[in-house]
Amino acid sequence: MDDLTFPFSIYRRIVQGHDLHFGYWTENTASLEEAQKNLTTLMLERVHGESLRVLDIGCGFGSFAHELALRGHTVTALAPEPAMIRYAQEHFAHPHIRFLCETFEGRDASWWKPEAYDLVVFFESSQYFPSLAELFESCRVLLRPQGRILLCDEMIADESTAHETAVKPKRLYEIALAEAGFKIRFHKSVGAQTAPTCSAVLERLQAHPACEGLDGLVAGWQKQKAMHEGGAWGYEILEAEKDDYRILACPEKDDPELVNLFLQIFSTSRSLEHWRWKYRTCPFGRNAVAVCRDLEGNAVANFSGYYVPVEDTETGKEEAVLQVGDTMTHPQVRHVGFGKTSLLVRTARYFFARYCENQVPFVYGFNTGNIQKMGKLFLGYRPVYPLDEYTLTLDRLAPSPWNTLRYTCRILRAFGPEHDRLYERAKKAYGRFLVSRKSRYLNWRFADPDKTYTLAEIRRRFGGPVAYMVAEKKGEGAVLGDFFVDPDHPYALERGVHWLGRTLGVQTVSLWLSRTPSWLTAHLAHLGFHRQPEPQGLWFVYVPFQSPLEVEDMEQFFFTRADSDLF
To answer: Exposed site from 80, 154, 246, 292, fewest CB < 10 Å?
Structure first.
């Protein structure tokens, strides 16, 4: 014990067992040592199979390796501290354990053999590796097919604290495991049960005789306690299996492959120019594209989103959020996995970890029953309500002579400062949340190279714009994808719809509209629009990340069809 280096020499004195890790506390847990045994038991419960070949990286004093050996497994246990290895050999020698004083980086070492292990264990050691990506890639080399990683560790929930510690954000584990070709089979957050460890350790440290370095150790644990009790840090148990698929961020050079995948799956084409407009040129954020690849490198699944600026009109704060765009899985791999291990769910979870968590307040989209059910079960989707579609036969609409005189209509080539002012004076009448309909966004949104939109504005005859509309002609009808009207001039909408119908030569107009604002839905009814459920059964859904938004909050989100990628 005397030759152990600091701080392990201190920990060995204050703990009556042989463990260096956190404990798992229940109502009946009486001591730190009992809590540590509880956590050991939880980890052992995740070791499946018989006579496994195990690599224990960062084995500490060797107690977990010994538990594995007692259960019939063969263990290679590594630690970089010579005194630790001597301690382990003295207290936990076993015919089925090799204790080696080596680091994990030594690829020329005797224990480094490709596909030599069934299980790699990190018992609170993963945080000390600077690159999780390199760590898990090495594990992939060492593990047999379907081999597993089992780890437990502190992880960061609030990433504003990441610069202060070697502890890493939880989402980085999910990203690195997916990119290295592992699927997560088990994940349990136990931060509430492990947090009391900090108080127990502090109590014993403060009772320890004064020695060099003790004050700094106490200060460190006090900070750790504050992080755990405040929710900034947590504690996770993860089990991941080596798999035949990797999930990665998709670089722009691979866009043609995803466009071709879309054609294969949906038998309809989207141009490469459209894909890049949507995901690579948006002025509010770019490149939120995740792709799942098989071992040959073929793209087999995709989950993508594009950024839109959403304003909270109560606070005036504008933030970029992600609107879910293209999601797809090749039919040949839809049988792979089930539920949370299906390729689409795994790709979506990677997307959320890489692009959403601690980065955007929420993600929203519009989907149908089956996708929505999957999203609720495995992705945290929160349904808000089913969509409504409004339709109007134009021969029922006859603007009054007064409206014809009061308002003029014209085709727009682009939006500008006048439309920014329209948005600013009218936005609070539309609910708490809405996509910020300023010219910078509108000019990007309606520049889709695969579409031919008609942009129009309605102006007071002797004044500025009081409304705008964006439509697309579809056969004998027109889809009114977006519109925005000054609530002081609701009949400008009547004038504009009538004029647009004649300009496009159509008989009907259809549109989507959120259930807020009520004054606008009532006005559409007054104008003769017929309201019915959206034909595909689409729902408005969202997933909160940085914002604690409830369904009741999102009911105050104004949207039109143009706030989806279906227009």
So the answer is: 80
